[in-house]
Amino acid sequence: MAPLKVGMCAALTVEVLNSLQNAGVRTVSEFVCTDLELMMTRCCVSYKDLVAIRKVLLVQYSAFPVGGTSWYEEILSTTAILSTGNSRLDDMLDGGIYTGALTEVIGASGSGKTQICMSVAVHVASSLQQNVLYMDTAGACSGHKLQDILHNSAGERESTALSRIGFRRIFDPWQLLDLLQKTKAAISKQTDPFYSKLKLLIVDSVAAVLSPTLGGQQTEGHAIMLNISRQLKVLSSEHSIAVLMTNNVVHGELGEPWPGLGRSWQHIPNTRLLVQGTGTTGSQERQILVLKTPRLPRCLSTTLTLSAAGILDLHTHTSQEMQGQLEASERN
């Protein structure tokens, strides 16, 4: 919670603030949770001033109740579903990747996570004509690979498709956090046309930059991981952006798959998918399994084939219905 500062209200003067801090009351939450009569005794501040400060802090920092109907209508007006370009994957995800939510793809090295991300990016940029910001932390993506997928995928060819994909190379978590904050600021300002139509943010992968800072006595790494997750949630929820991330996979004592980055990260994504081979040596088929979702039954699965067109269907074309949904979301 925010620390108490001079100027939050007229009664919170330097003398009052010093008295509160000497009594161990340093934050807004500590102030509103402490009995006023007890504070009056400890801090030698008048009861009238304490009541005035409390009223102002409650107005500034309390959550306002919202009716269920209003909340439901807001969700309907701001949520869009981005097709992945693969009909099987879309069917399993109840339409595709949802804006306002974090979707994570986990899997072993070489399982096809980056191929999935690049395919979705190309489809959103070319078929849905929306902008994509691709943050590459592992060096697995490149403009040439994106162009190859666009060239080999079916559907309407667009020379401007790649211009709708913003590519950023990230080397450490601090750089990632800085870019997320700058992205949030750019969306809020609405001065750059690229960010006004930004609908998909890809981080490939979160593990590559966060894993080296975790473990042992590195408490700073855990703090920045939570800060990054908070920025991703704010971007997705406040600006109606779909976030797609990749992560490593680890295995428990019984061989069950778990996402990398520890227990704190397990609850961050809204939807988690596991990509793995089908067991056939040399096969390009991949099994996609739903491990976590707020909308669907767990353990749903489908099979995809990796190809020069990524995971895109050969019959993928521009979806007028999807385009209309995105335009309606932007108007609201």
From TrEMBL:
GO terms for biological process: DNA strand invasion; double-strand break repair via homologous recombination; reciprocal meiotic recombination; telomere maintenance. It is found in: Nucleus. The keyword Nucleus applies. Gene3D superfamilies: P-loop containing nucleotide triphosphate hydrolases. GO terms for cellular component: microtubule organizing center; Rad51B-Rad51C-Rad51D-XRCC2 complex; replication fork. Pfam families: Rad51 (PF08423), RAD51D_N (PF21794). Its main location: nucleus. The keyword ATP-binding applies. GO terms for molecular function: ATP binding; ATP-dependent activity, acting on DNA; ATP-dependent DNA damage sensor activity; single-stranded DNA binding. CDD domains: Rad51D. SUPFAM superfamilies: P-loop containing nucleoside triphosphate hydrolases. Belongs to the RecA family. RAD51 subfamily. This is DNA repair protein RAD51 homolog 4-like. It comes from Branchiostoma floridae.
